[in-house]
Amino acid sequence: MLDLAAQAKNVVDREEQVLVLYGSQRGSAEAAAERIAGKMSFQIASRLPSDVNTNNTSRSSITPKLMALDDWLEASASVPLTRLVVIVSSSFGVGGAPRNGKRFRRHCENMLRQQLYTKEKQMEHDDAPSLHMLGNIHFCLLGLGDSSYKTYMSNPQRIHDAWTAAGATLIGSMGKADGNESIERQQSAIDEWMNSIWGPMASVLREAAAVTRDQLVEATKDFVGDDL
Questions:
Q1: Strands, DSSP E only, in 10-151?
Q2: Of the candidates 52, 54, 168, 175, which lies 20 to 30 Å from 116 by C-alpha distance?
Q3: SS3 state of residue 130
Q4: pTM, to two decimals
Q5: Other CB atoms closer than 10 Å to residue 90's CB: what's the count?
Q6: What does DSSP assign to residue 26?
Q7: For residue 169, what is the enclosing H or E element?
Q8: Contact, 191 vs 108, CB < 8 A?
Q9: What are the pLDDT tens digits along the chain (228 aa)?
């Protein structure tokens, strides 16, 4: 007869939290982020095989943490970055940030200026510090906008530029959902991008080097800096 209690003791849960951050003006980006967060646990966990050895079975649990970009920036002292982050953001107006992503956009612009300054210093001094504080972070990025504006992907692109300049690694390609098309076509573009990232996200969690919470807290402090 199987000893179910003994088997239960040999099951080791591995909880992996994933930040899902959004910047949204009229709700479309927020709705897309909610859909991603809602599907994430099953879609990623189902792609992570159990690690079976002689004594233990390791069971993965994926927990999304959904927040607006500016809310995360405000709470980052208690909600550090995760090693895998999903960002969904629209542009508003002429390439600007949406209402709950304005502070985050300003921070990204500051980061890009710091990166440029650091590169100039590195050209002058070999021992100048690097700003690759997000070297342990992988991220997915979905942009929403209206292609009737030439700058319709400007805000997501600036986020991309700031995060990659800070050392983060983009998973797959940046998604682009055009609000100038029909709602059905925009939703189809979101679904297509979303379905393309589950496998690569699972691969990162399966293959990337483990990152401790202390490392993530330190990376968050370095990245956010004076915005904490």
A1: 11-23, 51-52, 57-68, 84-90, 138-145
A2: 175
A3: coil
A4: 0.86
A5: 29
A6: S
A7: strand 169-170
A8: no
A9: 344 444 434 333 567 899 999 999 989 999 999 999 999 999 998 888 765 333 444 456 899 999 999 999 999 999 999 999 999 999 988 889 999 999 999 999 998 988 776 666 556 655 545 567 899 999 999 999 888 888 889 999 999 999 999 999 999 999 999 988 788 899 999 999 999 999 999 999 888 878 899 999 999 998 898 655
